[in-house]
Amino acid sequence: MIMSALAATAALTACVDDDSNSVLNDFENEFGTNTKIELEYDTVRGGGSQSNPLLYASAITVGQRLQMPMTVKYAYPERLKYTWMVVPYKDGKVQQVQVGNKLVYVQADTIANTRDLDYVVDLAPDRYRFILVAEDPVTGLSASYHAPNSNQGVEVPQEGVQGGLYLLTETADGNTDIEVFTSDLMLIYGGLAEYKKYYSTLTGHTLEGKPRFIRGCSDGSTAKSAYMVATDKNMYRLNMAGLVTMNDWNNMFYETPATYNPQAMVMTNSCEFLINDGRLHTLYLDKANSRKYSAAVAGDSKDYEAMPWLMFTTKTTWRPTPNAIDADQVVFDAKNLRFVPYFARKTSMSTFLSTSGDAVVDANKLPAKPMAIVNGVNNSTYAIVKTDGATMLYRYNFYNRVDEGDLSADGARSALDISACTDINNATMFATCTVGPAFYYSSGKNVYSFSPQTGQTASQTVYTCEPGEEVTCIYAWGSMGGGFPTSSVIMWIATWNAGKQEGKLIQYEMDHNTGLPNSMWGPMFGAPDNPVITTGWGKIKAMTNIDAE
Q: Which pLDDT tens digit goes with each residue over 72-102?
């Protein structure tokens, strides 16, 4: 992990200096030109290639001792001055705080002035990145090293926070509990563990209503540090620490919608996006707010009815394509059979350019209402549509893309006939991971996959139910967040046996290129081989992992 000073600090511009006058944005070398100073973690002194305590870390704890022996390659190592810094960091950038009517970057703290780090963690709950800067005061050359190599940083959790895969389970009396699962393959939670009836044990009660969805959300800051749980009776914002209710449906809006029907929620672009009863609501987090959603966003010249789908990621801050769409969100308007963009802080939806005649798929007019829309590989968008003659997979790209009238994702292969996929027309559950092209689906009987990359025309079987078993939920880690590299290779399948009144959770390491189970990282890290099966759960209806949604 060798980085030039700009590569290490480009995302940290506008940071202010701490008491030791270490100013991050003073290092102005052009990317790739500073090759004379090389910094690396010392695997020999550290004890092996996997000994780096921050390499794949998602969380560290107060009082934990971090030892980072480093090597340096430079013609004049005796001249180098070292500075270890730590800065609040998430979503690929230094975190910001509200000061008056402005947002300013949080200060970086110097924690050592030595090449090697020996530090006892003494940090407030947050997410951080550690940075070592080496500078030659004679030549002005500098280089830096970042850890962890994740755009989510490393978390110092609040007391009472339990990490893992959160499972929304339906109780026998028709209410909702939360259970938690961790495994060796997840890397960051300490191995295999099961926390049955976690929420009800913690609080003494369940949540009213049957489960709908669970997603990571804000606790009022710009960080994803709470859970949004929707049931068919109420919606709750639960703090990660102790799952304390911060607010519920009746005080989540400046003006509560007349109809309660939460269908989808995603936090991205410093905003919480919520679809309720076909209308989009926003809660921007990078300005002072009371954790309350806006009134419903209006349509453009036409009214709209949003399907229960939202984009996870719509744009990039890393070398964005000039003149790219730059929408904060995209929804599918089921009333007019079209995708429509939403731009930051607008009170109404917008539109894409008219579709050109040579476009393979038309984002402005689909032939029918999709049976499902999911987030695809590289933040593309998949629409699965039943037409008169076939079931089609239409693929679009609204991410980091210039709208010139053709938003097809993959040329001629943007429209694929998937009619031969087993049970596809009855599917009610879908899952994807945005680092691979495959998607997964189930009607409740078995679990199948289809990958547009392999050239296949039919589905492949991932899991076959045992007698008396039905699939109740499927979920795949969808990002390169906590637990890298395995956060992009794990899939979970939940089943329910009504006769036994018992839930089962099946974990697979997956190849999301082919859509089939594959053991690669598990054996490398000493995790059990596929599949890992645990039983005794409730009826699992939704899942999420906040560290790698």
A: 999 899 999 999 999 998 767 787 777 777 7
Sign of the alpha-carbon dihedral angle for 370, 371, 375, 376: negative
Residues lower than pLDDT 50 in the chain: 1-34
Predicted local distance difference test score (pLDDT) of residue 102: 75
Q: Is 536 left (phi over 0), alpha (psi -120 to 50) or beta?
A: left
Phi, psi (deg, nearest 5) at residue 24: -60, -40
> Closest Cα to residue 181, out of 518, 523, 493, 512?
493
How confident is the model at residue 377, as a pLDDT?
95
Helices (DSSP H) in 469-528: which residue ranges? 521-524
What is the spatial distance between Cα 289 and Cα 298, in angstroms, rounded to a whole number?
A: 21
Tokens standing for residue 234: 């109420």
What SS3 state is found at 3?
strand
Helices (H), ranges, 429-481 = none
Q: What is the 3-state secondary structure (H, E, C) of 409-442?
A: CCHHHHEEECCCCCCHHHCCEEEECCCCCCEEEE
- Rounded distance between C-alpha atoms, residue 27 and residue 85, angstroms: 14
pLDDT given for residue 24 in this prediction? 39
For 452-482, the pLDDT digits (tens) are 998 889 999 999 999 999 999 999 987 656 6
For 219, list phi and psi in degrees, rounded to 5: -100, 10
**Biggest alpha carbon–alpha carbon distance for the chain:** 76
What residue ranges do the domains of the chain occupy? 2-156, 161-206+423-549
Question: With contact defined as beta carbons under 8 Å apart, do 537 and 543 qualify?
Answer: no
Q: What Cα–Cα distance (Å) separates residue 353 from each residue in 46, 221, 310, 349, 406?
A: 55, 35, 20, 13, 9
CB 60 within 8 A of CB 115: no
Beta bridge partners of 508: 491
**For residue 4, what are the CA distances in angstroms to 40, 98, 153?**
12, 30, 19
